[in-house]
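--- STAGE predict ---
source: upstream dedup step, 1 unique chain passed
mode: sequence only
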Amino acid sequence: MELEMTTRDVGDHTLIKLKGEIDIYTAPSLREAIVESIERGRYKVVIDLDDVEFLDSTGLGVLVGGLKKVNQHDGEMGIICNQEKLLRVFKITGLTKIFKMYKSADEL
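--- STAGE serialize ---
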């Protein structure tokens, strides 16, 4: 499965909306989008996972790596996710405590 990605600025945040699967094959494109945001001086990044059907450990690793990168610039990384199956992964791994969790882009 492919990963579709759209990036747009919402106030002082960069919103990366994803659709499809985040796995070992598609995670590098997400990493690139996060790095591009940081290179543009945008250190508040929000990843919208509402249309993501699958997220593996590689994808989680990219998200944690992105968080570390934005933190080096006193930024933040947030997650938009309303799917219980994905939220469960974030809760089990304790990632809901280190990512800012949003219900929608309206909260940015």
